[in-house]
Amino acid sequence: MLEQHQDILTILELCDILMIGRNRAYELLETGVLKGFLSSDTYIFMIRPL
Questions:
Q1: pTM of the entire structure?
Q2: I need a surface site. Which of 16, 19, 21, 34 has the fewest CB within 10 A?
Q3: Average pLDDT of 16-20?
Q4: CA nearest to 15, candidates 32, 31, 27
Q5: What is the pLDDT confidence band of residue 11, given thresholds at 50, 70 and 90?
Q6: Who contacts 5 (Cβ-Cβ below 8 Å, separation ≥6)?
Q7: Looking at the DSSP assignment, which residues form a beta bridge with residue 43?
């Protein structure tokens, strides 16, 4: 499934893939279930190691 997506995703792209809402994605980020970093004003998620 993730093979058809780019290696770096924004939170909205991640929500589309996981079929969850933005609030749920931020909740998973805050609890450490998802790992991401803040770049400017957007969270970035890497789905494959560089």
A1: 0.69
A2: 19
A3: 92
A4: 27
A5: confident
A6: 13, 17, 47
A7: 38
Q: How far apart are the first and last CA of the chain?
A: 19
**d(C-alpha 22, C-alpha 16), whole Å:** 9
Q: How many CB atoms lie within 10 A of CB 46?
A: 12
Which residue reads 């792209």 in tokens?
13
Which residue type does 14 have?
L
What are the beta bridge partners of residue 9?
Answer: 45
Residue 11 neighbours by CB distance under 10 Å? 17
Cα distance between residue 17 and residue 9, in whole Å? 10
Handedness of CA 18, 26, 36, 11 (dihedral sign): positive
Q: Looking at the DSSP assignment, which residues form a beta bridge with residue 8? A: 46
